[in-house]
Structures are given as structure tokens and as C-alpha cells.
Amino acid sequence: MILYLIIINLIAFLAFGIDKYKAIHKKWRIPERDLFLLALLGGSLGALCGMFLFHHKTRKTAFRIGIPLILIIEGFILFYFNAS
């Protein structure tokens, strides 16, 4: 499980960086739903770090609220299952 979380967070982080690069260079972009999906699959911490490190999607309310909310929910889920 730990290895999965490391990998999905790294993928989410890199996806935000790649999408920012593509946005700057006017290339094909990663769909927003895919960025959210990566966060929902456990990569919310990597997505949040990528958002702020690359200054990408930080003006979009859905991302500013959605990604931290997903992180909080995933944190509660991890805490709940580790506490039981």
C-alpha cells in the first residue's frame, strides 16, 4: 500500500508539472478530469504539491478547494483504517 501511494503521488505530481509545461508551450493538455482522477486514486498530496510548486491550476476554484478536500478525506480514510 505504501509503495502504491508513493507511485500514485509521484505520477500526480509529474502530471501537474507536465500539464503546466504543455500549457506554457501551447501543446495538447492533460484533461482536468484526469488530474482530479489521479488525486482521487490516492495522489492528492502529490497533486497539491504539484499545484503549488508549478503554480498550476491554483486560480481555479475547483482545484483550490477540491484537491485539499480530497487530501483531507483520504487522510481520514487512512487514519480510520490504521486505527481499526
Unreliable sequence segments = none
Helix content: over 70%
- Helical run tally: 3
**Biggest sheet record:** none
Mean pLDDT: 95
> Structural class, from helix and strand content?
mainly alpha
User: Could you give the distance between the termini?
Assistant: 16 Å
Overall outline:
elongated
Strand content: under 5%
Description of the structure:
By secondary structure, the chain is mainly alpha-helical. The protein is built from 3 helices and no strands. It has helices at residues 2-24, 32-53, 61-83. Helix 1 packs across helix 2 (32-53) and helix 2 packs across helix 3 (61-83). The model has no long low-confidence stretch (mean pLDDT 95).
What keywords describe this structure?
single chain, 84 residues, mainly alpha, elongated
How would the blueprint of this fold be written?
Elements (H helix, E strand, L loop, with lengths): L1 H23 L7 H22 L7 H23 L1
Helix pairs in contact: 1-2, 2-3
Give a quick precis of the structure.
This protein has 84 residues and is mostly helical. Helices cover 81% and strands 0% of the residues.
